[in-house]
Design goal:
alpha+beta; six-stranded antiparallel beta sheet; three-stranded antiparallel beta sheet; 5 helices; globular; disordered N terminus
């Protein structure tokens, strides 16, 4: 389960040189998302709500192998639905350290919560992966992007 840091009101708390935007979930044009841990060493990835809706009822999820070294935009798995199949691409470089094994027996979890319980994998993210986050869209940019499709 993904644990989120509590949201702090900017009027009561002061950020000491850190950008709150850095800790936001980021999105790709291929409809994947990534959310970094607070210490910026791990990232959880999955497909977006938009992608899950477009796919329809998910019937199979191919998960990546643990310890797989990946570069940004590498295919790390696949999601198959009654309508089509789609590769899952990693938004950043890293090493797969965990997969959501529940998806093997309950692939429909992706439809119920693609950006929550339906996460696909967790990566150990190094400096390169953290840097690659800057080229991704924030939630507002992604919403605008999908409204234009």
């Amino acid at each position: 389960m993904i644990t989120r840091a509590p949201q702090l009101s900017s009027s009561r708390y002061r950020g000491f040189g850190t950008s709150a935007a850095f800790f936001e979930k980021k999105y790709t044009k291929e409809h994947e998302w990534i959310e970094l841990s607070d210490d910026k060493t791990e990232g959880t990835i999955g497909i977006t709500t938009y992608a899950a809706s477009a796919l329809g009822d998910v019937v199979y999820v191919e998960l990546p192998a643990i310890d797989l070294e990946v570069s940004a935009h590498d295919a790390v798995g696949a999601v198959e639905s009654v309508k089509s199949a789609s590769d899952v691409m990693t938004p950043v470089s890293g090493k797969v350290i965990a997969t959501n094994e529940a998806l093997e027996t309950k692939p429909g979890t992706i439809n119920k919560g693609p950006e929550g319980e339906g996460w696909i994998a967790r990566l150990k993210v190094g400096e390169a992966g953290v840097g690659e986050m800057e080229g991704l869209m924030d939630e507002e940019e992604y919403r605008k992007f999908t409204s234009e499709e």
